[in-house]
Amino acid sequence: VNMESELKLYLECIRCSQNEHSLKDSLHALGNLLSSSPSEIRETFRELKGLRILFNIFTMKTNSDGVRQAVLVALSYAVDNCVTSQNLLIQKNVIEMLYVKVTSTSPTLPIFQASLFFLSFLVHGNSLGQHKCRECGFLDFLMAKLRQCSPKNTDVWTCILSCLSSAVNNPRNGENQSRLMEIIPLCMSVLES
What DSSP element (H or E) covers 100? Predict the structure, then answer.
């Protein structure tokens, strides 16, 4: 079975899943395939409308947080180093939707982490995504969240710092870097303690 056939099979399994358990299993398997595949496979996934299928699952109100988390992880790998896929989702205001998701509700920790994991992949190496991240207020939200969060909560700290790093580097983003200068003293004090 070639990779394109395998992608089609996973997408069909996702579309036809009758229960949450089988849907999550299919999403995890798809995420594993995308994470270990060359970029051409991620391009093929986009051409097969895989991004739209996953995003539609994410936005369905009937899905559990476990399904949403699995979707976010699979989407992360689907856009990894694939600027065309990143831009497609950025143009569909996905960054703004994620921002609303993590700021207007009290997301569970796994959803918060998966959202930032996805955001990191979405803006990494993408100046448009980095700009949108700043423009919609996500960058300021992450900086505020970092200030509020206890450094002892290493899972959340690591997640936020990783996302912030993606929002300022590769390509270098001077405006975002200037904004982040505000949290350097906080980070240094944590490292020194």
Answer: helix 94-104
